[in-house]
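Researcher: Here's a chain I'd like modeled. Treat it as a single chain, no partners, no ligands.
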Amino acid sequence: MTDFYKVHEKDKTWRVKDDSNKILVSFDKKKICNLWIDYPFAMTDWEIRILDKEHHF
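Model: Modeled as a single isolated chain. Structure tokens:
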């Protein structure tokens, strides 16, 4: 089972609890993205805009 949580209540992204140093996020609790590998190449323009707004990478 995957544990999802939000950093801020109003965020549109869900963070995924992970014991490694990976930063995993999801927008729909189905597709999980690893920020170190997937950003921005495996993400839609909408997902990139949301991440840039909420997490300031």
